Amino acid sequence: MSTDKWREELALLRSIIQTAGLAKTIKWGAEVHTHNGKNVVSFGGFKNYFALWFYNGVFLKDKYKVLMNAQEGRTKALRQWRFTSREEVNEKRILEYIREAVRNEDEGRVWKAEKSKPAETPRLMQGFFNRDKRLKSAFEKLTPYEQKEYIEHISSAKKKETKIARMEKSIPMILQGVGLHDKYKNGPILTS
Questions:
Q1: How confident is the model at residue 2 (pLDDT cuts 50, 70, 90)?
Q2: How many other C-beta atoms lie within 10 A of the C-beta of residue 93?
Q3: What is the Cα Rg of the chain in Å?
Q4: Strands of 23-27's sheet, edge to edge?
Q5: pLDDT grade, residue 44 (50/70/90)?
Q6: What pLDDT digit, counting tens, does each position of 124-141 carry?
Q7: What are phi and psi of 19, to 5 degrees?
Q8: Whole-number average pLDDT of the chain
Q9: What percent of the chain lies above the pLDDT cut of 70?
Q10: How far is the CA of 133 from the CAs of 126, 137, 145, 148, 149, in angstroms?
Q11: 117 half-sphere exposure, CB direction, 13 A CA radius
Q12: Distance between CA atoms of 185 and 108, rounded to whole angstroms?
């Protein structure tokens, strides 16, 4: 996230959100504003825009047609409101959306995550597991999400040589019980 470029704009969003009476906490290294312990809204700066995002934004009426799904097909409930200049920030409208998001939380209108099917282990990985029972056991101890990350990472390679190379690089991490992207999950993301 790019924060220096949008420092003043992010300070403006923060000041607007603070007037909504939400609790402020830090989650995933970012400032998150909650209502009764439920995530409602957050904000941040990126390379070409700064944005608000509503965690259950899929339920917002979007009266002004400003919300978007940042990752179509992947993001289910979260919706972003992007800005490219300070002039686009409309405090009254932002507070309308925040109040509606809080009402939705109070009414229990929240996205229920769908249980995903366990990822099927590709033959190539299964071959490695058949040759090394310790590796198979370590992989099975990973969370389903971590297993899926490895499976998708290795399966997404087009060439067999690349798949093998990715698997070989993954083995030490699997044996340590480390998820593929764990090193990125706990790093700070500054928004102030």
A1: low
A2: 14
A3: 21
A4: 23-27, 30-35, 38-45, 50-54, 79-83, 67-68
A5: very high
A6: 999 999 999 999 999 999
A7: -80, -10
A8: 89
A9: 92
A10: 10, 6, 21, 19, 20
A11: 3
A12: 28
Which of 114, 137, 136 is closest to 127 using CA atoms? 136
Helices 123-131 and 144-155, axial angle in degrees (round to 10): 110
Residues 6+ apart with CB under 8 A from 5: 45, 47
Q: Is the pLDDT assigned to residue 54 strictly greater than 80?
A: yes
Report in angstroms the alpha-carbon separations of 185 from 28, 51, 77, 178: 7, 21, 20, 12
* Cα 18 from Cα 162, distance rounded (Å): 49
| Section 69-84 average pLDDT | 88
**Structural domain boundaries in the chain:** 7-106, 123-181
At 9, the amino acid letter reads E
Fold topology of 7-106: Aspartate Aminotransferase, domain 1 (3.90.1150)
Please give the Cα distance from 106 to 140 (Å, whole number).
Answer: 39
